[in-house]
Amino acid sequence: MDKNILYENIIDDLINNNYAQVDGFFTESTCLGLKNLLLEKEQEGVFKKANIGNKVNAKEALAIRSDKISWIENDSENEFEKSFHSQIDEFCTYLNRTCYTGIKDWEFHYALFEKGAFYKRHIDRFKNDSSRKYSVVTYLNQNWQADDGGALVIYTDEGAVTILPEWGRTVIFKSDLLEHEVMVSGKDRLSITGWLK
């Protein structure tokens, strides 16, 4: 699909629903490379238990979330992370040009939900920091089935929307508007999660 058409479809969904779901936002090779990088980092032991809050009030809260994360450097020289950032940059440029969103930065991390992990209902914007405008999640799970759990549930005015974390799927939503949660995962669930700011 032409990228301008893809981006316009995303924008339409964000305007109408405050979230968008799209398959194929990133290329197959980029997704595969990122999945392998995530698994390598896990083997190297660089993942850390995720916190809630930000630098001011960060604390571990295992009753709320039990995933592990590893941050991605914005200036990474890895070819797959560079490809990922290039696509994000192109999308942000399009958003800024067509929707005047004023996005100036972003941050992303690898996320690993091991079997039994979850993240209870929450919103992505900090009380003391309003910089996050859009949340972006890309799933790196091949052959994921509904019985594997780990679904993303987004709470809209029209009701709950359940999205399976299927291979190559990207979900984008307004960080300050939509509460969401990750249901208990039945097996290791891989993704890249971040925010456009």
- Estimate the global geometry from the Cα principal axes: globular
Strand content is 25-35%
CATH H level: which superfamily?
Answer: q2cbj1_9rhob like domain
Please report the total strand number as a whole number: 11
CATH architecture: Sandwich
CATH class: Mainly Beta
Helix content: 25-40%
The main sheet comes to: 7 strands, antiparallel
Could you give the distance between the termini?
27 Å
Unreliable stretches covering 5 or more consecutive residues: none
CATH fold description: Jelly Rolls
The residue-averaged pLDDT reads: 93
Can you give a write-up of this model?
- The chain has 197 residues and is an alpha+beta fold.
- The longest helix has 21 residues, at 79-99.
- α2 (28-44) crosses α3.
- A seven-stranded antiparallel sheet has the order 1-9-6-11-4-3-2. Strands 5-10-7-8 form a four-stranded antiparallel sheet, with no helix packed on it.
- Helix content is 27%, strand content 29%.
- The chain has helices at residues 3-17, 28-44, 79-99, and strands at 19-23, 48-49, 68-72, 106-113, 119-122, 134-139, 152-156, 159-163, 169-174, 179-182, 189-196.
- The mean pLDDT is 93.
- The two termini are 27 Å apart.
